[in-house]
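Troubleshooting: if your tokenizer reports a length mismatch, compare your output against this known-good record of 296 residues.
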Amino acid sequence: MKNSTPLYILCICIFTFILSCRPESLQISLPEYQPQVVVFSQIIPNALMAVSLSKTIGALEFSEQQGDTLSQNILDALVVSNADVTVSYQDRVDTLNEVGAGIYVSAFTPAFINETYQLRVVTQDNKIITSQNTMLPIVAFDQVTPSAERTETDTLVKFNFRIIDEPGDNWYMINFYTNGQTNTQPDSEGIDINNYFESGSNFLKRTELISDAAFSENTIEAMIQLPEISQRDSVTITLSNINETYFDYLQIRQTSSNLFTEITKEPVTLPTNIEGGLGFFNTHYPDIKTFDMRDF
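Known-good structure output:
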């Protein structure tokens, strides 16, 4: 039998050398996290303009991977209340009143096509957030037809639609709502205080984004299958003419598919038109159609 002692001693020497080369632990000092204000807005046709204000929290304060959940205390801490919120257009300045936690509303702001609206927010701690956006022309469905196709196990709801495309480069957002109590995409547009149904609340089932670059003609025709919608549902479909920046913003949010990337600013950097904060100031004006799927 060969003597293995020299090999054993060599292994010990190598292991000792590796340990001696291991760097000492470094103490990393991170700067104190500074929360940012997140802005979302919504135009409710012939009714009002609404702006939602919340704020981010640091990734070290909230970790979904560590089992943290959005408790009511955390949600309350995210709300930005008692801010001064105004919207300017033409020669007017409208003040928005806080009607709920972090929700500010103006019932007297008219919708002027091709008009630029300027948002200004001053928080209680004197942070100033500004933005501006132009209200694009309203684009209505030229045709939208729902159908229900029976399969061996279920009924598949479909929507065929046609849009007459505006001149130039355009981007569109189509939202599908049913009547429900909980939103499956609460961060799709930040807020949605519209109510398309006589009772209950909006239940956002799907957001479809369309760029006219994918179509060679001035007519956009497509069919969307919605397995998440039942033939027993009432469905509201909205069409909004949006700008490219907001289109890119929504695409990235859909890809990240996680509310916490916005709350903690990780790991995705989203496009924004907000100076001094995050989110998006929208002024799109939707076309709205409602259907009772029991009729199809």
